[in-house]
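TASK: fixed-backbone design
INPUT:
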């Protein structure tokens, strides 16, 4: 239903009440009595809404030569207005077959007058009161020489519409709502049947994503003893029977089992695309985990999670399936690659796009496809393409409309490979090229997928989304359509290129199809199974052939032309905001500095990398694109803000956990060269190497003691050589830093007093000594001469 886009208001149609009354004499070629609008016109409706039409089921979902020759649509009509609606009736209408890829979406927003093949009205209810709902069933032949039909005589993808009319109280009869969907027709049943053209089958490659939004509680460093903490227990539900991830995995398991896919055509075309963050979370859940009571307080109160067994069972199934088919990884936590490029930190970049393959291999026990990058946004900018460039050829996956190329194709050059730098000569002399900083020399190629197909797939499921690459003319409110209608749109989009070889050849489009759902896909079990069944039917009928993803990697396109990347404004709008990027740019160097300062003890189970890695990964989780393009965007943004704040707070706490303990009171030196004794404390579970920074006044000289290692959760006495030349109380400031100068803890002030008196004491001592020598010499002089000393006058003996 797209009432805001296409429906003409009921009030404006009151004068047509008589014309619109249901009748059994309607003919197949009759037009809806609503005043016609120009082709493609979209009318904005500001009138009250009265009825809501919902499609529940379409049978058959895909028409073949062996199908029943009827299309049956079941659904419901609900009165959502403030008054009774009378004479509620529905009918089925058809528009011409989709003739272009773009039409897979734009045909669903055409004016109703373009759906010019119509059936008869069928009365749903003579009266529908406020809040009341009524079921209906419409059935119409695909073709008929004598009766009213949809007049479908050849294979193709056909837009269908269910139109509902009624007469609200205090108004006239009007078209009050409609619902639209696509019907793929592989072949027309009947006598004679019309089979499809299989002379030019399309090559199909399909990605099957297994991903979830970030679930681990933010700002919690790594540990070998503490269980992981999750922000909620929704993932346990998703992994259990009937959950989203259980159903996605189960659909792939069923469709590729030996009894179903005997010739392995579907398995060969399919590749699991797994989020490493999901695997990390699930694997930790298998050991037992906690769920925090308040996501903004990750270290606060928590309760035991309920998904340990479900996680173990799901992970075992994922390992089994991955071992039997193509498997690759997606960027960590579906992170925004454009944001990561802007942060420009090598460690963060490696964690996002290089480490995921290692995680997938280690957890699932497989060897995944390498040098393949699928951005969650479906588009790349030039800077990101340069960031992805390595020494080997890298293949990316992007929407075809994000590449500016003069020739339609299924892949394109983005960056050409360059010759490696010249080697150092044998005589040891260096050349200018040999002394330059090494740069990546590999090429970057792009596999292209149809944005209309990707958009239709993204609209499937319980939480539909509109990708960033979807053109503005193809964007509309997905919540107006039922889940069944959106599934039909996806089936039609996937089938179109196989059913329209002539249109594809005329457009110069390669005969290939990349089936690319969104990474966070909410398709349920039935939707997923129906989609896989449709792709399998395409191959069994000869309309398609499998094309493994591995065969596409590193493959050169047909033309040497370099294509230009186009980054849509919508992708920037849907991306990670500037304050999250700034937070990552601020905290990443701090994480690196702390990691470098921590001591890697081979005997300790907790290594520096294991301790700090979750914090770096949390920054990537804060830059996740999960749910940023659907109705849960607000909650995704809030979760991102909380995660970034928690990482910053945790880093402050970790740096504050290493400090100099203030001795308190006044510290008295025994002499002017007595050492100063300080205590440095480390409350971290990993040892750390620190440097003591001193801010001493002019009357004191303190010698640098160099790097000092503090034990885990322990303290160490620091003996600091000190020379004091002043007997006054002096205030000395001490602090600890990492080797690169990052401050640890708060500076500590120590008041020092020395027993040294300095130069004045030396002068007084010298003067007193000189006076003593003078007086002693004088007495001896008088004694040698036999003269009384004048100083003894008045003290003669009696």
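OUTPUT:
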């Amino acid at each position: 239903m797209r009432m805001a886009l296409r429906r003409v208001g009921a009030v404006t149609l009151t004068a047509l009440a008589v014309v619109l009354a249901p009748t059994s004499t309607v003919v197949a070629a009759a037009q809806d009595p609503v005043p016609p609008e120009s082709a493609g016109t979209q009318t904005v409706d500001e009138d009250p809404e009265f009825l809501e039409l919902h499609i529940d089921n379409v049978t058959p979902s895909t028409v073949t030569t062996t199908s029943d020759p009827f299309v049956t649509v079941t659904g419901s009509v609900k009165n959502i207005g403030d008054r009774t609606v009378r004479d509620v009736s529905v009918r089925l209408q058809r528009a011409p077959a989709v003739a272009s890829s773009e039409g897979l979406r734009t045909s669903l927003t055409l004016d109703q007058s373009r759906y010019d093949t119509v059936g008869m009205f069928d009365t749903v209810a003579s009266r529908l009161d406020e809040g009341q709902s009524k079921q209906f069933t419409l059935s119409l032949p695909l073709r008929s020489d004598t009766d009213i039909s949809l007049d479908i005589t050849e294979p193709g993808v056909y837009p269908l519409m269910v139109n509902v009319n009624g007469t609200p109280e205090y108004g006239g009869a009007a078209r009050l709502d409609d619902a639209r969907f696509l019907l793929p027709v592989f072949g027309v049943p009947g006598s004679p049947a019309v089979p499809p053209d299989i002379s030019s089958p399309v090559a199909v490659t399909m990605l099957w994503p297994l991903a979830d939004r970030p679930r681990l509680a933010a700002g919690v460093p790594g540990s070998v003893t503490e269980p992981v903490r999750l922000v909620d227990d929704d993932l346990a539900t998703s992994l259990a029977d009937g959950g989203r991830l259980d159903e996605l995995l189960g659909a792939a398991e069923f469709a590729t089992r030996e009894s179903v896919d005997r010739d392995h055509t579907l398995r060969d075309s399919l590749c699991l695309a797994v989020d490493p963050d999901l695997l990390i979370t699930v694997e930790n859940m298998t050991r037992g985990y906690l769920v925090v009571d308040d996501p903004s307080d990750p270290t606060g109160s928590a309760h035991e999670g309920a998904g340990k067994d479900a996680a173990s069972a799901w992970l075992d199934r994922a390992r089994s399936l991955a071992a039997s088919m193509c498997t690759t990884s997606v960027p960590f936590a579906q992170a925004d690659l454009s944001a990561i490029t802007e942060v420009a930190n090598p460690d963060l970049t490696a964690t996002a796009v290089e480490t995921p393959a290692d995680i997938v291999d280690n957890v699932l026990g497989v060897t995944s496809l390498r040098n393949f990058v699928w951005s969650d946004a479906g588009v790349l900018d030039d800077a990101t393409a340069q960031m992805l460039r390595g020494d080997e050829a890298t293949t990316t996956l992007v929407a075809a409309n994000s590449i500016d190329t003069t020739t339609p194709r299924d892949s394109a050059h983005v960056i050409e490979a360059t010759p490696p730098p010249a080697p150092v000569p044998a005589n040891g002399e260096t050349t200018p090229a040999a002394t330059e900083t090494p740069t990546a020399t590999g090429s970057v190629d792009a596999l292209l997928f149809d944005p209309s197909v990707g958009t239709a797939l993204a609209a499937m499921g319980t939480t539909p989304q509109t990708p960033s690459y979807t053109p503005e003319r193809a964007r509309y409110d997905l919540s107006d359509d039922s889940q069944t209608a959106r599934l039909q749109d996806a089936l039609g989009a996937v089938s179109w290129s196989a059913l329209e070889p002539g249109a594809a050849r005329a457009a110069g489009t390669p005969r290939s199809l990349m089936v690319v759902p969104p990474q966070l896909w909410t398709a349920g079990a039935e939707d997923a199974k129906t989609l896989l069944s449709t792709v399998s039917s395409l191959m069994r009928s000869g309309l398609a052939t499998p094309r493994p993803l591995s065969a596409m990697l590193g493959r050169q396109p047909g033309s040497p032309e370099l294509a230009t990347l186009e980054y849509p404004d919508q992708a920037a709008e849907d991306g990670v905001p500037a304050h999250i990027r700034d937070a990552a740019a601020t905290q990443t160097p701090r994480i690196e500095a702390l990691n470098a300062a921590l001591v890697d003890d081979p005997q300790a189970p907790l290594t520096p990398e294991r301790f700090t890695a979750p914090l770096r990964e949390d920054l990537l989780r804060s830059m996740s694109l999960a749910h940023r393009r659907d109705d849960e965007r607000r909650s995704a943004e809030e979760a991102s803000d909380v995660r970034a704040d928690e990482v910053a707070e945790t880093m402050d706490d970790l740096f504050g956990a290493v400090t100099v303990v203030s001795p308190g009171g006044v510290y008295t030196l025994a002499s002017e060269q007595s050492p100063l004794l300080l205590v440095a404390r480390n409350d971290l579970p990993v040892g750390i190497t620190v440097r003591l920074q001193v801010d001493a006044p002019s009357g004191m000289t303190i010698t640098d003691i160099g790097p000092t290692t503090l034990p885990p959760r322990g303290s160490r006495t620091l003996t600091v050589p000190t020379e004091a030349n002043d007997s006054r109380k002096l205030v000395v400031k001490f602090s600890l830093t990492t080797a690169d100068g990052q401050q640890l803890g708060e500076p500590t002030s120590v008041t020092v007093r020395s027993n040294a008196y300095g130069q004045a004491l030396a002068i007084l001592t010298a003067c007193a000594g000189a006076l003593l020598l003078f007086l002693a010499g004088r007495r001896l002089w008088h004694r040698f001469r036999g003269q009384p000393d004048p100083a003894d006058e008045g003290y003669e003996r009696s």
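COMMENT: The longest helix spans residues 758-784.
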